[in-house]
Write a structure and sequence with these properties.
2 copies of one chain form a homodimer. Helices cover 36% and strands 21% of the residues of chain A. By secondary structure, the first copy, chain A, is of the alpha/beta class. In chain A, a hairpin with a 7-residue loop joins strand 6 and strand 7. Chain A is globular, with a radius of gyration of 20 Å. At the A-B interface, strand 10 and helix 7 of A face strand 10 and helix 7 of B.
Chain lengths: 313, 313
């Protein structure tokens, strides 16, 4: 029996959990608010790991999921916008020095893909495309049972692929990316633009609109709200068709808050995907599904990472 | 010493060559016109292989490059537009039965990528993006020293990735694909559209325009011809930036006729690529180059395929 500690650095919380081998029910599970904009994130990270550290077992390694950009090959966080003090921050080296065991790092979308492949919706598949859709769009790709990293460790940034050259500006500052057309803020932006253009909607009275409120209005039948999700689903179908042509996976798994909006998004998405795939063979036996691990995908991906790295030693 | 026979089915010729181990100078090399629209392509294929078959050596396997779509996993040509009589045609099974040795198949762009990686411009790289630009755009991707195939064997169809949703119609019938914006016919189409719109150019007097004539006019200073290549280069930069974000290769290799147009295409391409990459780290140590094997890329890729398959037996 091997014991691993998994860590997930999220926008609001840092979580740590200890697992025994492949048992996805944790031995221990602790969380703390990340207060990531304030100094001392590394100290809070160490404290939550210590509080989750099993007292009676020998831990083999630590696996950690963090927002990127980061270098999974060296374990260095490059400059994640959520934690301003972590610039070229060698987090695995520091964790390893503190805890005396190897530590491994990868970005949250890659590890959610790995977690779903090993423990969740992607079990039994060898070629997996994972997309998380929330305030941004992140991607993770598994090819022949291996996570796609690329030369610099920056592959699978699938929210930042151009689908509409010259189109709306993305959170990253570039134009026409999938994220700028299909993530939560893109849905909200479209509603705002249409309201400003004089389209009527119950949403005209809502301040600080978010994608969830648009979804609720759509479910009540609001035409503008429905069309905002239809448009996002259509672009998502265009993007995923391109990803099928590029990666040819056997399963597409959707995670993230916006993916929980159900048929509102997925009906137009599937229609668009079928209309855009240029050879119907890509769709043969293709599974399209939502993530099975929910909020635990990052932790379980970090567990899978630590296990995999140790078994490759 | 192992001997292999490599075959390349091109638009105008079928070629076959015998190679000894890793020596890329063939022992024998034969070609015949493919007359691919006429019946009897398989018989012509067998004849040219027989004529290239080395008399005094034992051949270990046959490797074959063909236009797709095809299934590299089963060796079946699905429905290549160039050879109307080959519908779900089990070419490797038939070759193997005739010649009594294993036969392996992959598409021409994948094998050009494999050939460049093993014998050409990509030697020493582990993560390769290969694009061939001529009347279409084909792709081949190598990840961790392995050709990317995907679940159905249809991965890396990079000409058919959407970069401008709702944009011009591609040869495949779908809209906004990279091929419809940056391949030879896209360059010609743009010139025609601009001529029809009244733009002046020396090309207005040319019938049956092709991309090479546009290139020659551009080199003589024709403004419309130059702008057609600039536009193609700009879209190519947008597409390749997305491919860096998706695959993060250490080298991008360009093959095909249009890639021989030099700075006309590659100056605007590189400017566009640099302007579109959303994190400059993708460009660190990135090599951008043209193919080294020219017309032999398919044959040498077929050789590499046969060698690799036999060594994995």
């Amino acid at each position: 029996m091997s014991t691993f500690v998994a860590v997930d650095i999220g926008g609001t919380h840092i979580r740590a959990a200890a697992y025994e081998s492949d048992n996805i029910t944790p031995l221990t599970h602790k969380r703390t608010r990340s207060h990531a904009k304030e100094p001392g994130t590394f100290d809070r990270l160490v404290q939550v790991i210590e509080s989750a550290w099993p007292k009676d077992r020998s831990v083999e390694a630590i696996g950690m999921a963090s927002p990127g950009p980061l270098d999974p090959l060296t374990g260095v966080v490059l400059a994640t916008p959520n934690i301003p003090e972590w610039i070229n921050f060698p987090v695995t080296e520091k964790l390893s020095a503190h805890f005396g065991v190897p530590a491994y790092l990868d970005n949250d979308a890659n590890l959610a893909a790995l977690g779903e492949w090993k423990f969740g919706a992607g079990r039994g598949h060898h070629d997996v495309l994972y997309l998380t859709i929330s305030t941004g769009i992140g991607g993770g790709v598994i090819i022949n049972d291996r996570l796609l990293h690329g030369y610099h460790g920056l592959a699978a940034e699938l929210g930042h692929v151009v689908v509409l050259a010259g189109g709306p500006t993305c959170s990253c500052g570039f134009e026409g990316h999938l994220e700028a057309l299909a993530a939560g803020p893109a849905i909200v932006r479209y509603v705002r633009e249409q309201l400003e253009a004089g389209v009527r909607s119950e949403l005209s009275s809502v301040n600080n609109l978010n994608a969830l409120e648009v979804a609720e209005a759509a479910k009540r039948g609001d035409a503008l709200a429905r069309s905002a999700y239809e448009r996002a689903g259509e672009y998502l179908g265009i993007g995923v068709a391109s990803f099928l042509h590029a990666f040819d996976p056997s399963i597409v798994i959707f995670g993230g808050g916006v993916s929980r909006s159900g048929p509102l998004l997925f009906e137009p998405f599937e229609a668009s995907l079928r209309a855009q795939v240029f050879n119907s063979r890509y769709l043969e036996n293709l599974v399209i599904t939502t993530a099975a691990l929910d909020d635990d995908a990052g932790l379980l991906g970090a567990l899978a990472l630590a296990q995999m790295k140790q078994s490759n030693q």
